[in-house]
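Input/output pair, single chain:
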Amino acid sequence: MLWIAVLLLPLLSVLLVVMDRVEERLLAPGRAKRRHAATGRHLRLVRDTGPAPVAVDEAPPARPRAA
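Output:
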């Protein structure tokens, strides 16, 4: 019985520390502006500047050529 108590003591200590951290995160006031870590290296959006190009399958059928 004593061995069980000795083995559970470190486990309960870790659980107490983890729950303390979780409680701090849940009850902490939110930041004014959330920012991700790499603000200068993120991808930029590409905006469409014109009509979409005609795909090969959507091209009008070719006229028959005279030989």
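Residues 2-27 form the longest helix (26 residues). The chain has a mean pLDDT of 77.
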